[in-house]
Amino acid sequence: MGVEVIPRMTTNHTTDLDILVVGGGAAGLSAALLLARARRRVAVVDGGRPRNAPAAHMHGFLSRDGVPPARLLAAGRVEVTGYGADVIDAEVDTLARRDDGSFIARLDNGRTLRSRSVLVATGLRDELPDIPGVRERWGRDVLHCPYCHGHEVRDRPVGVLGTGPAAVFQAQLVRQWSADTVLFAHTLDIATTDRRRLDARGIAVVEGLVAGLDIHGDALRGVTLATGEIVPREAVFLPPRMIPRDALLTGLGCAVDDGWVRVDGAGRTSVPGVVAVGNVVDPRMQVLTAAGMAAAAAGMLNADLIEQDITDAMAHSADSVESGAVSHAGQGIGR
């Protein structure tokens, strides 16, 4: 049997939707897939800037381990559109909540979308330190997540750049994959207790500022200190500053706690009809967990819409009964 395509309703070049999904990564597409299969009118708007674009392969996603990130997203788009959802290559310029509780989104391609609800999965961006070579090698041999990339650099000489307080624990974590792990202190003031803990596991601390990365050909060969010394390393990890792409959410007035939009267990924000999932609300989410959270949130969002459908149907039924009563009364008077 073919997949049923549910027609779109358009008025004055405005597309009417049940759910607008902003962000077409694993989370957004996962939510859209479930909602499209639930026969909802869905559109995914995505500007094509996935966080993991620099990475050659994706890891830790059951049945898709080692797959290039772009391939996963391409397959997801095919599945989502196969159930009748739209995938729009664009950015949402403005998103506003109307008096009736619905939402209006204006895209940078001139289109306007009107939706009963919004699911935001715009992710986050990594703010990297201003160290020569870091940005160029990001996602290749300058890495963030040991669970995503540690196995690929196992037993090799690796380092952790001390660009933030989290680097101390990150060095302990990376040590699980390589006994030859060093922590470059850089700007860190490492406490005595932490130094003892590092020493206990054989993690050396290299003092001094990091001046850059030593690159030969297309590979990292070492870390260059301000003194000119080069410490041979084949990969380095660093904890970037993670900044949520939450401008649309905060623009709607969604409450924020500790720098991140607040959501409940189903992804609901403080604004009715607005759900947020994935890295835009939780920096710990990996591809698999973000997709899982999004699917669960999509189910709850559909349940919320069903409650609206019930309320609307009951109101319509009551209006019909009242209209019929008035009609019969009128007939009686005319006799």
Keywords, please?
five-stranded parallel beta sheet, 2 domains, 31% helix, alpha/beta, disordered N terminus, 335 residues, FAD/NAD(P)-binding domain, 27% strand, elongated, 20 strands, single chain, 8 helices, eight-stranded mixed beta sheet
So what's the overall shape?
A: elongated
Based on the structure given, which CATH architecture of the largest domain is correct? Answer: 3-Layer(bba) Sandwich
Distance between the termini: 57 Å
CATH topology of the largest domain: FAD/NAD(P)-binding domain
- Total E-strand runs: 20
Q: What is the name of the CATH class of the largest domain?
A: Alpha Beta
Structural class: alpha/beta
Unreliable parts: 1-12
Helix count from the secondary structure assignment: 8
Q: In which range does the helix fraction lie?
A: 25-40%
Order of helices and strands: EEHEHEEEEEHEHEHEHEEEEEEHEEEH
Give the tally of structural domains. 2
Oligomeric assembly = single chain
Topology diagram in text:
Blueprint (H helix, E strand, L loop, with lengths): L8 E3 L2 E9 L3 H12 L4 E5 L22 H14 L3 E4 L2 E6 L5 E5 L4 E9 L3 E4 L6 H4 L4 E2 L2 H4 L8 E4 L5 H8 L6 E4 L7 H9 L3 E3 L3 E7 L2 E7 L4 E3 L2 E3 L3 E4 L2 H5 L4 E2 L2 E2 L12 E3 L10 H48 L1
Helix pairs in contact: 1-2, 1-8
